[in-house]
Amino acid sequence: MQEGQKFQFTANSGKPAEVAVPYTLGAWQETKPVEIMLVKGKNRLRFAVVDGSRGVTIKDITLTPIN
Q1: Do the beta carbons of residue 23 and residue 3 sit within 8 Å?
Q2: How far is 10 from 1, CA to CA, in rounded Å?
């Protein structure tokens, strides 16, 4: 079984947020939410697989505003 998969999310040049990715044997599943700070106007989002993780597929990314 593959365990220990992790993504790293960064918005603009902020502090990276790390999230564990579940091993689902091909069945789509959501990861836990990650809170990132966006600025007014254009933002640059970066997604990376943490060293030591295997390749994974991202189906979609949902951005939800919080107050």
Answers
A1: yes
A2: 28
